[in-house]
Amino acid sequence: MGNFTYAVKAAVVASLLTSSFSAVVVEKRQSVVTGWTYYGCQTEGTNVRALAAKSTAYDTMTLESCASDCAGYTYFGTEYGRECYCGNAFGTGSAIAPAADCSFSCRGNSAEKCGAGNRLSVYTERLTGAVSSANAGSTTKVAATTATVASTQPAGPGPQKSDIPAGDNIPAKENGNIKLSVLPYKVWDTQTNDPVSCITRCQQFGFNAAGLEYSSQCFCGDIQNLQVASAPTTSTNPNDVQQYTYSALPLKYADSVCNALCSGNKNYYCGSGNRLTYYTWTTSPVNWAIPTGNAGGKYSLLIGGVVVPLIVSQAITGKVTFLEKAGTGEPNGTGAYELDLTQINTFSIAWRQMTGLKTDVFCAAGLTLPDKAGRQITVGGWAGTSNYGIRLYWPDGSAGVKGTQQWTEDPNNLQLLVPRWYPSAMIMANGSILVVGGEIGQNADQQPNLEILPRTGGGTVYLDFLQRTHPFNLYPFIMVVPSGIFILYYNEARILDEKTFATVKILPNLPGAVNDATGGRTYQLQGSMVALPQYAPFTAPVGVLACGGSTSNGGYAIDNCVSTQPEAANPAWTIERMPSRRVLPCMAGLPDGTYLITGGGQHGVAGFGLGGAPNLNAVLYDPSKPVNQRMSVMANTTVARLYHSEAITLLDGRVMISGSDPTGDYNSPQGSWPEEYRVEVFTPPYLLSGLARPTFTIATKDWQYGAAYAFALTSGSTANLKVSLLGSVSSTHGNSMGQRTLFPAVSCSGATCSITAPPNSHVCPPGWYMLFVLDGPTPSVGQFVRIGGDPASLGNWPKLAGFNLPGV
């Protein structure tokens, strides 16, 4: 079972703070100064220095010289690249800061980081242990240096030292006397509490410290939390988000002081009043890479916007459509705009104002149709007639040439069967449009049912599970799977028969937060979900990944992703802890099979004024890596993206990020974060590597299932060539409707290559897909292809005056 020690190890891991406080990423960095351990990036204090005992400044500053200046002190910190500060404790208000904040190179050694403005790179002599990290992008392992004792249990009650959960082993135990907030998550207060169950729970959710108190209470956190001696008051106000501050180390007591017998096992101690029996393990359950420079990607401004969008999608013409809720933009706005990405440098030409909307798209659903025109559709909205809305747009124009088509709507003759606000939509395997869920209006009755477009005479189908889980199942995540339709709603998931819509399989409930199993993933507890990559020959069960979300009990954002294969014989949810908490996130599938997680807040829920503490950091999720090693902490932005924000992958391989409507008050917005007009892009590292992008030409862009299609590689190598297909996405409220990632079979003879289209509509629902050719990690510019035709003859619908129909 391994050995145990009685000292805290120097596991430098990301600190997850209390759920009501902002989560930050603490950099995992090699301890480069002999005798010192990297402590983290730290802010200055409030009207005081973080470290005030001694200071020096000079233009030859290095970490080693500052360490020498601070000999005899507990901490040293470098700032502005040339300043050195020493101290034994942190000043009031000094707090953990994001790792990326400490970005200034040391004046005397550019390979080292010496803080930044109002940020200190802090090292300490206090902690024992050694951190090994080959480079800034590697994962971290911790080697213990303290003495060990045999893992045998003495007779009589005491701290449990043997039969601890295996895996990373539990090499440390310590008793402390500080308040409950030493470990931020109170997991339970139960009469079955014992060390094994508490430690297992903490490990399951990616933490590396567990504490037991008052016999019946279990707490989870990180080793770094053990350095926290202050306990800020909690608050559910998203504007009132603080960070823990560091002070003195917790005091340590003999085992006999923590002598409350565990409620679930009287053979062991589980703390006492204001005392924790706590356990740590030296290898973190999760390892987040922290790439630097271009390897971390880059946020940049694309263009100033003309609207705060609600729904965003790239049309098959390459232009991007923006739809706004009524009243979001200027009083003379039309609610619809189109952006020509080839004209970004000329604002007046880049944007086209569109007309035709007669009802409000406020919290509607959107899709790209599989008809040959690639028309876009939105359904639902708010309120009144808008609830029934069906709106269509036939994209036209070309690069540099404005289109002339407009949105078309006939509220009197083309409507949904029932009013829907916050519904979801999906193209079914048979090519029809499935519309699911929603509610009638604000604080009004739900719509626990579904309907099909075009209407064939049937009515709605009642879904009892939506009735039961309202109001936390809005904008449910839906996708086609070979055995039917997968739907994820609130904290539940199931598979429906695609013809009868009866339930054919119920999955285990999704794990929520470590301390709240009822945390949800769909609106109003909004997280995000994507389909994981599918690879030829497409025989493996498709996977799904859901990230972030929140809890109904206080709006504490969830800090993990969960994944499963719904059609596996016994599907189970795999939990992977994220570097920080995130509600209102957006996720975008990239051409290389990775996923960008961006935006959102660290506290609250979805809705006007209900979510805050913007999460400015991007995370890259790579499902090809081992579990708990799939996330990389990427670049930061300065733009808050909260309620009503969007993210879509563009044909050029970048991710467009738009929107943020946190208050709903456009004339005089309240709060800390504005109504956001600016449009950004995130450039992934594959476009910053300096490697040339492959280019290709393809003649046939209308594909049938299972057929082979030729393309010519006009530049690039075939040695490591692969092809990906990304479904056309309509992004709103963290829901990427139409998202799919597929890697079909490809072979080449010289520069002539052949792609085998996916085999059927259950692997690849009919529709439009971005086709990318990759030379190793580097994607080409994509081109749209249509796969599977238009089996439901949507091109002939609706047969009403005023609607131009592309035909079949």
TrEMBL record:
Segments traversing the membrane: none
Signal peptide residues on this chain, from the entry's feature table: 1-22
Gene3D superfamilies: Galactose oxidase/kelch, beta-propeller (2.130.10.80), Immunoglobulins (2.60.40.10)
Pfam families in alphabetical order: Glyoxal_oxid_N, GO-like_E_set, WSC
InterPro entries for this protein: Gal_Oxase/kelch_b-propeller, Gal_Oxidase_central_sf, Glyoxal_oxidase_N, GO-like_E_set, Ig-like_fold, Ig_E-set, WSC_carb-bd
Alphabetical UniProt keywords: Signal
Name under which the protein is recorded: Copper radical oxidase
